[in-house]
Amino acid sequence: MRTLLTDLRFGVRLLLKDRSFAAAALLTLAVCIGANAAIYSVVRSVLLSPLPVPESGRLVLMYNSYPKAGAILGSTGVPDYYDRLREMTVFDEQALYRRQGYTLSGEGSADRVQAVRATPSFYRIAGAQPLRGRIFREDEGEEGQDRKVLLGYTMWRERFGGDEQIVGRTIRLSGQPYEVVGVMPARFRYLWDDIDLYVPAAFTAREKSDDSRHSNNWTMIARLKPGATLAQAQEQLHALNARNDERFPQFRQILKDAGFVSITVKLQDHIVGDVRAILYLLWGGVLFVLLIGCVNIANLVIVRSHARGREMATRHAMGAGFGRLSRQLFTESVLLAGAGGLLGLGVGWWALRGITGLLTDQIPRGHEIRLDLVSAALIFALSLAVGVLIGLVPVIRLRRTNLNTTLREEGRSGTSGRGATLVRRALATAQVAIACVLLIGAGLLLASFRAVLSLDAGFDPSNVVTAAISLPRATYADDAAARTFTERMLVSIRSLPGVEAAGVTTQLPFGSDSSDSVILAEGYTMAPGESLVSPRQTWVSDGYFEAMKIPLVQGRYFDRRDTADATPAIIVDERLAQKFWPGRDPIGRRMYNPTSPKDVLAITPETRFMTVVGVVKNVQMNDPSPSRIAVGAYYIPVSQDATNGMMLVTRTTMDRDAFVAQARKQIAAIDPELPLYSAETMDELMEQGFVGRRVPMLVAAAFGVVALLLAALGIYGVLAYGVAERRREIGIRMALGSSARQVFGLVLGDGAKITVAGLALGLAGGVALSGVMDRVLFGVTATDVRVLGGVALVLSVVALVATVVPARRAAKVNPISALQS
Known about the structure:
By secondary structure, the protein is an alpha+beta fold. The chain has 4 domains: 1-58 and 280-409, no CATH class; 67-259, no CATH class; 422-453 and 693-821, no CATH class; 472-673, no CATH class. It is 51% helix and 15% strand. Strands 13, 14, 15, 16, 17, 18 and 19 form a 7-stranded mixed β-sheet that branches. A hairpin with a 2-residue loop joins strand 6 (170-173) and strand 7. Helix 10 packs parallel to helix 13 and helix 15 (417-453) runs antiparallel to helix 25.
C-alpha cells in the first residue's frame, strides 16, 4: 500500500510538471468519456434495461397488419381479444388498453386529464399494487359496472391534496360520475409518466360481435406462461387466424389481398423498434470517438515516453527494475484516466440533460433516461480500462529499450527509431480513417434530414395555432348538440381580431392522433389480387383547409352548402383521386364506406354515399418511415357527421398564448366546463415531429467534429514531432543544397500519405456500413457520392491545414543552428 501511495504521489507530481501533456490528455478523455456516458445512458435506459413491469421478458404484444392496404403496424380489435382469450393457451394473462383523454370537472373548474382505459387484467400484468384502496375487479370490466377510477399519484397529490379519505368518493369525468377505488403509487409508470388516472374498459355487445372484426383500435399485450416461447405464441396465433378463415369465408379473399397477418412480438422490442437502429448507430459512433481519443493520447504518450528515455535509464541505473518502472508508468496512466473519467462523467451528465430535454417526449421510455449509478460505474470502469491500455504503450516501449545505451547517449542525433515513427504514423492514419467514418455517418444523416425537410408538406404551417377540445357525451349526446356547439365556437373564434381563418379537424399533420378506414368508389372494379385501401380518415369543418392553406386542386372546399340535410360530401387528396379515377375528373363521383361485414364490397340499404366535391393536395402527415405507406386521405365535413373530439385550427396574427387566452374566453362563454388544452403552433408540431431525426443528426455531427479535430491534432502532432526529431537531418539536407520549398514539400508529402491512407480506409469503412445506415436514411443512399466526396474534401482541407504548420516550421530551419545543436 505504501508503494502504491508513493507511486500515486510521484505520478501526480509528474503530471503537474508536464501540464501541457496532462491538460491535452484530460481534455480529450473528458470529451470522449462524457460523450460515451451520455449516449450509453440513453441506450441503457431505452434499449437494454427491462421494462418497469414484473417479468417484463415474458410480455408480448399482438397486432394485426394489412401491409398491402397501407396499415403495416395496426392494432387489435375486441373480437380478436376474446378469440385469443378463448383459444390461445401459451398465455397466463391477456389484456387490452389504450390511452384516452377525459375532462375532470368540479368546484367550478374543468381540466383535461390523460387516462389509461384497460381491461382489469392489464393491472395484474403491469404488477399494479395501489398505495390506497384496490385495483379493479374482473366484474368491473363489464358494461354498466365500469364507472370506477384509480387515481395516479401526482393527480391525487396535486388535485386532491393527498386526501387520505379519497377512496369511495365520486369524481366527474366527461360529465359522468366515477367512484374512486384506489390510488396508484408514485413508482407505477408502465410506459408513460403523464397518466393522471386509470379506468376499466368495458365493451358493448356490438364491440364484441363479429360485425366489429378488423375494427382495430386497442393495444393488446399478454404474458407468456413460464417455459412458453414467442414462436409457440406465433404458431397458435397463425392457427387461430386459419380457423377464422374457415369461420368467416367472406373475409378470406379480402384479407389475403391485403396481406393480412397477426404478429406476436416481444413488447420491449416493439416499443423501441423505431429507435433501435439509430441509437445503436450513435452508440457505435461514440465508441469510435473514444477510440480516436485513445489513439490521440497514445500518440502523445509515445512522444512523452521518448522524451523521458533518459529519466527511465537513470532510475534503472539507480536500482529500479523493469517491474518497478512499469508499475510507475501504469500508475500514471490509470491516474490520468481516472481523473479524465471523473471529468467525463460530469460532461456526460451535462450533455445528457440537453439530450433528454429534447428527446423525453419523442422517444419511447424517454422519461426513464438518466445517468444512474450502474451506468456511471461502467463508464468509469471503461475509463480505467482505457488507462490500462494507454499504459501499455510506454511499458512495451520500455521493455524494448536498452536503457544502458540510452544513458550513454548524448542526445545530439538520436531519434525514436523507425519502428516508433511507423507506429505514430499508423495511429494518425487510424485517426483519419475513424474520423472519416464518423463524418460519413453525420453527413448521411444531414442529407437525409434535408431530404425530409425538402418534402412538400402540402400546407403552410406559419401563423397557425392549434388546440384540442373534447365534448363530453353526457352533455353532447347527439350529433345535433355537437354540431351546434362547433358552429357557435367557430363563429366566435372567427370574430376575434387577427384571426384570418379557423376550422376544426380530428387529426393534425404531425399530431399524435391517427385514424384510417376502408373506403370504396362507386363503380370501381378491383383487379384480381388487388387489396382494399385504408386511407387516413379525417373529419373537418369549413375553414380548415383555408386555415392550413392546403391548396385546392379541383372543385371546392367544404362550405355552408354542406348542411346536415344536404347531399353528403367528401373531399379526397390527389393520391386517392389517382387511385380510383386515374386520368378522369373525380368531381361529382360517389364514394362509400363498407357496411356489410359479410360482404365488404356489397352496397346495402345502409350504405351512405358521399359525393366528391373537391380534390386537395397531398398532405405530409408525419415523418416518412418505412412502417408507414401513404395510400391517400379523405375528409368528411363535421357539419354532416359531427364529432365530439376535435382540434381547433386557426390562422392568426396573434401569438399562441395571446390567442389561446382569447379563445378560452370565447369557449367559456358558450360552455364554462369545456377546457381548451394541448395548445401548440403548427411550427412547433413539425419541430417535434422531426426531433427524432434532428437530434441524432446533431449528435452525430458533434461526434464528427470532435473526431475531425482529434485527427487534425494527430496529424499535426506526428509531423511536428517528426520535424523536431529530424531537425538535424533537415539541416544537413539544406546544407547539401535542398531548398526550403523542397523541405516544405517533403513534410507535406508525409502528411499527404497519412491523409490519403486514412481516407481510403475510412471510405471503405463507410461503404461497409451502408447496410446499417440504409435502415435510418430517407431520400439518400449510404453510398451517396456527394456525401462521400464532401467528407473527403473536408478531411483533406483540415489535414492540409494541420500539415502546413509543421511543414513551414521545417522550411524555416536554420542549417547552421541545426547542425550545431
